[in-house]
Amino acid sequence: MKFLSKYRRHKLATPLLLFFALFGIGLTFSVASATEAPKAVDAQSKSTLIEEGQQIFLKGCSSCHGLNSEGGAVAPSLIGVGAASVDFQVATGRMPMQDMSQQAMRKAPVYNEEEVAALAAYVASLAPGPRAYTNEEITWERDGNTAEGGELFRNNCAMCHNFAGQGGALTQGKYAPTVMGVEPKHIYEALITGPQAMPVFSDKIITPEEKLSIIKWIKAAESEPNLGGAALGRVGPVTEGLLVWTFGLGLLIGIAVWLTAKAR
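The line above is the sequence of Cytochrome bc1 complex cytochrome c subunit; the predicted structure tokens follow.
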């Protein structure tokens, strides 16, 4: 204490204290700025992505969905559908489509991954909704259960997509598409958004873990070899029997007609 008392009245004491105080403030500000910088960059990047998505939307989607995504006579509103719905519909090539009176079919996508992400970001900015996923997030190989997934699929999905996931006919000319060859993230997004005639399976109805099990069963069915030859939709002996009966009976009728003509 005597040592400090000796030098605290020194003429350089005040400038030195001021220097250390300013140094401490500057250091603290630098650390705080370094911590907040990524957030500012992320916000700016997100804003740019949304603006890019808006421009894509105005050029390719607004003619049906409205300039403000409010919907129109031929297309629904996109307010609140979330990024997941956009990612599913656009990345699978279902949207955009020329004839809105027809069921949207899976085809080659019009937009690339970056453009799809921008569109999804723009629609997500309009109102809260289910977020989009990546295939890396859908850890079905690690967390899914094939047996449980098969049971869940048969109880919740087979009546439309058929018990083997090959797809099936619905009413009024609609159909449930095959789930074979679909990316895991798109299966998950379809479950949480309910595209077209499909119901929405919220996390209260089918938990995220159960969704992963369904995906694991679908992927197992995908890789299962067909040892019996032509699959015929894998709908069982009825289809196979009908095919044999039709072609077999047709062949017998043809032979009978040929023999009759030959006898004359």
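Note on the example: The chain has a mean pLDDT of 85. Residues 133-226 form a domain with the Cytochrome Bc1 Complex; Chain D, domain 2 fold (CATH 1.10.760.10).
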